[in-house]
Design goal:
It is found in: Cell outer membrane. It is built from 13 helices and no strands. By secondary structure, the chain is mainly alpha-helical. It has a domain at 35-90. Helix 10 packs antiparallel against helix 11, helix 10 (206-220) packs parallel to helix 12 and helix 11 (223-236) packs across helix 13 (261-273). The longest helix is centred in the middle third of the chain and has 30 residues, at 153-182. The radius of gyration is 33 Å and the shape is elongated. The N and C termini lie far apart (131 Å). 37% of the residues are buried.
């Protein structure tokens, strides 16, 4: 009888403890664990289409983690890099893209992975008034795309972006050079302008750099060097405003008569720059 009277109390206590989870035999299971690689990939794709890039990137990463040897793992890895890039999480994008290149170096998508790495640096290029570390990283990454994957569809765009990044870097040198020139530090200014002329001669800043060299050399009394810079400017950019400014400067400054300026500059260029015997 005592056992029977205690039975309701035992059952009530057991039910209460079970309700608190003490004797629960079922644990919460992440539904993604029961999904196939394709299902996880498609879930991530839906998240990406809905604009949840960061969430999608993490879901794509789950394909690689849970199904590393499936056909979907490789696709998910490059999509993870893309999703992180779209989310502007550039560090994670580079990490995923680099892992793809490390795992699948011969795959056709390796070029795209390298391009994503380049874009993460290119999109972070600062204005010319700031440190240009990202510009240098972008140039190196873009060069990698062009040299390793010259036949890919990304090489051409990388080449265009390379020129723009190079122009940006030249702009930084010009900014510093102008700063020195305005303060009368002509030697320091010349060194900056020469970097543009020698190392960034294909950029849009070259004509101005040559004109600024004319200004700087004339300020130091180095007339021959000023004429040489003006001759290079006249030969390569004869119709530019910068050449007109330099032409006016050397004629008004008495370095050469206006009547013979054109022929003199041409002769200087052919003799001094081209090494012709006239």
């Amino acid at each position: 009888m005592m056992r029977l009277t205690r039975l309701p109390l035992i059952l009530a206590t057991t039910a209460m403890l079970s309700g608190c989870g003490w004797f629960s035999s079922e644990e919460e299971v992440d539904p993604i664990l029961s999904m196939s690689a394709q299902q996880i990939f498609e879930t991530a794709q839906t998240q990406l289409d809905e604009g949840s890039e960061r969430t999608a990137a993490r879901t794509f990463a789950e394909v690689e983690r849970l199904h590393p040897y499936s056909q979907w793992a490789k696709r998910a890895l490059i999509m993870s890099a893309f999703a992180y890039y779209e989310a502007t999480d550039f560090e994670e994008a580079r990490s995923s893209a680099q892992r793809f290149i490390d795992f699948y170096p011969a795959d056709d998508e390796a070029a795209y992975a390298a391009y994503i790495i380049a874009l993460t640096w290119y999109d972070q290029i600062n204005d010319v008034g700031r440190d240009q570390g990202n510009t240098i990283e972008a140039l190196q990454a873009l060069q990698t795309v062009m040299s390793r994957y010259p036949g890919s569809e990304y090489a051409r765009d990388a080449d265009l972006k390379f020129d723009l990044a190079l122009d940006h870097l030249a702009g930084k040198e010009m900014e510093i050079g102008r700063y020195y020139l305005a303060r009368g530090h002509y030697t320091a200014a010349i060194s900056r302008f020469k970097v543009v002329v020698d190392d960034f001669d294909t950029t849009s800043h070259t004509p101005e750099a040559l004109h600024r060299l004319v200004e700087s050399y004339m300020a130091l009394g180095l007339d021959d060097e000023a004429l040489k810079s003006a001759s290079v400017l006249g030969y390569n950019f004869p119709g530019s405003d910068w050449y007109e400014d330099s032409y006016a400067l050397i004629t008004s400054g008495g370095l050469v008569n206006a009547s013979e300026a054109e022929s003199l500059l041409d002769r200087i260029y052919r003799q001094v720059i081209l090494g012709e015997q006239l």
